[in-house]
Inverse folding.
């Protein structure tokens, strides 16, 4: 008899466009990732990512610190949402706010982020979106790329799961570079989500091992 596969429950935090969310959703819908996206959480009232989610029948939640009297109340509310959906994996996909520390701790090695450069370079506060690619071009490096990492208590410092390089061309402007990097993001993020959901990622100290 076929063994039933337990699907992993995913929550996605996203602030904007949602193209990485869409790339992951597509692979789930094709049956390539044993998971279901239970909800999208955004700090904006109606980001474009909510439209994609709406069409797929995925619950959307606008949660902003300003809606709460205190940071504790905000954190408790977020945690209760993740509990309600029995979330196994938290995915940050273009989310611009810091995740409260109790949530980072609760989801240690179960919360991932994507960064459009090769960490530990071009990262930290203020390095997001097109600013990353502007800095890359300004610096004159020949190689940039994509990094997916587990989230720890600082910006962009958690254990690195995968990196893939992208060449910086002499006539690149931030927008052309961003486009090529984004294409790679859409390939590697679903790969990492699949590996996580298949139970193939193991974290040993700061190293992430991919098991067969
Ligand atoms: C991506 O470039 C990602 O690397 C960064 O934010 C952007 C989000 O894009 N963290 P999208 O909303 O997934 O299209």
């Amino acid at each position: 008899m076929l063994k039933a596969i337990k699907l992993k429950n995913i929550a996605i935090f996203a602030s904007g466009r949602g193209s990485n969310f869409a790339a992951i959703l597509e692979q789930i819908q094709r049956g390539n990732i044993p998971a279901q996206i239970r909800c999208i959480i955004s700090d904006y009232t109606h980001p474009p990512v909510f439209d994609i989610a709406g069409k797929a029948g995925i619950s959307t939640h606008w949660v902003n610190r300003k809606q709460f009297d205190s940071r504790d109340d905000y954190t408790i509310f977020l945690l209760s949402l993740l509990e309600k959906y029995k979330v196994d994996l938290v995915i940050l996909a273009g989310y611009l706010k810091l995740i409260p520390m109790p949530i980072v701790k609760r989801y240690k090695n179960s919360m991932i982020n994507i960064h459009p450069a090769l960490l530990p370079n071009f990262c930290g506060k203020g390095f997001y979106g097109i600013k990353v690619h502007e800095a890359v071009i300004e610096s004159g490096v020949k190689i940039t790329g994509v990094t997916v990492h587990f989230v720890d208590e600082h910006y962009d410092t958690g254990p690195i799961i995968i990196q893939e390089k992208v060449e910086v061309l002499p006539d690149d402007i931030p927008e052309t570079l961003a486009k090529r990097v984004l294409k790679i993001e859409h390939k590697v993020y679903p790969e990492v989500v699949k590996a996580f959901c298949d139970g193939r990622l193991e974290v040993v100290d700061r190293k992430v091992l991919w098991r067969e």
Remarks:
- Residues 174-197 form the longest helix (24 residues).
- The chain has one domain: 8-207.
- The mean pLDDT is 96.
- The pocket of 5-O-phosphono-beta-D-ribofuranosylamine is lined by residues 14, 16-21, 93-94, 114-116, 182, 185 (CB under 6 Å).
